Amino acid sequence: MPGSAQNIHIDMQPLGNWVSQGICPVDIMRLDRIHSVISGNKWFKLQYYLAEAKASSTNTLASFGGPYSNHIIALACAGRDNGLHTVGFIRGEMPARLSHTLLQARTLGMELVFTDRKAYLEPEKIIRAYDQPGWQWVPEGGYGTTGARGAAEILSVVPTGNYTHIICAVGTGTMLAGLINRAQEHQHLTGISVMKGNRSLEQSVAALLDPLPARRKNYTLLHDYHFGGYGRHPEPLLQFMRDCWQQEQLPTDIVYTSKMLFAVKDLLSMGYFPAGSRLLLIHSGGLQGNGSLPPHTLPF
Ligand SMILES: *Cc1c(COP(=O)(O)O)cnc(C)c1O
């Protein structure tokens, strides 16, 4: 996997029917399709962590995540595929029934260590308590310059120079930072934060940017499309997801990509993007997260 970004196939899907409403061309890069388990942007964010592990005497990758984490499941799978043991420190007490995400992570060979919410807030202490020779720690969500370096390659696997605006969902900000670093001068990045009032995000993104002054101007973070907060998915969002599927044949996830799509549709209807804009949306994956919904909630 590391360094193999050149060999993958990526579909670009035009969204002409409904999302763009003919206002300006909108294409979505379907990273959800590149791997059945290693979801979308995680595939990119993990590549250099894996390369570092392979170039050293690492035998175990350890990281952090919640019970539905796309990062945890991706790490479990990438570790197995690369001959590395994986350990996931999971937020919260061990539940009576494991989530589908954690069951699959365990099937992929990941060792799960449940960590109460208070302890989880201090990962440095966990690292000090558990660190062993041969272990490499990957920050929660793959956050860091290593993750951003991998995410930057999203813009290099297919030609993307024609687009004026690139839009993605934002959790830790690692993917957005990578895209900002790789974007061309005429391109503007818009990040849709999926958390409620995450005021440290600006700082988290800025910390991962290349030290070029121009890089600090070509992006905008929007904080008003969280639908109540991280992981919240009220009925209007679910209905929006059904509409996306029916009218664009586009599957979205409840945590990230649905909120990003909703934002784009809303911004387009407000005339947010200047005439002549050409939009590139990043479908960053995450569809496994929909497995937490009751059966038949969504038509895909
Ligand atoms: C992890 C994830 C994100 C957020 O990426 P960050 O680099 O943490 O901002 C966005 N979309 C999906 C589907 C994800 O799994």
- Decide which structural class fits the backbone: alpha/beta
Order of helix and strand elements from N to C terminus: EEHEHEHEHHEHEHEHEHHE
Task: Sketch the major β-sheet.
Answer: 6 strands, mixed
Estimate percent helicity.
Answer: 25-40%
**Global geometry:** globular
How much is the average pLDDT?
94
Rg over alpha carbons = 19 Å
Bin the strand percentage.
15-25%
Provide the low-confidence segments as ranges.
Answer: none
Distance between the termini: 28 Å
Give the distinct bound molecules.
Answer: pyridoxal-5'-phosphate
Strand runs, count: 10
Spatial order of strands in the largest sheet? 1-2-10-7-8-9
Write up what this structure looks like.
The protein is an alpha/beta fold and 300 residues long. The protein contains ten helices and ten strands. Strand 3, helix 2 (70-81) and strand 4 (85-91) form a beta-alpha-beta unit. The radius of gyration is 19 Å and the shape is globular. Pyridoxal-5'-phosphate (PLP) is lined by residues 39-42, 70-71, 141, 169-176, 253, 256-257, 284-286.
Please write out the topology.
Layout: E1 12-14, E2 26-30, H1 40-55, E3 60-65, H2 70-81, E4 85-91, H3 100-107, E5 111-115, H4 117-120, H5 123-130, E6 135-137, H6 145-152, E7 165-170, H7 174-182, E8 188-193, H8 201-206, E9 219-222, H9 235-248, H10 257-269, E10 279-283
Parallel strand pairs: 2-10, 3-4, 3-6, 4-5, 7-8, 7-10, 8-9
Antiparallel strand pairs: 1-2
Helix pairs in contact: 1-2, 1-6, 2-3, 6-7
Bound molecules: pyridoxal-5'-phosphate.
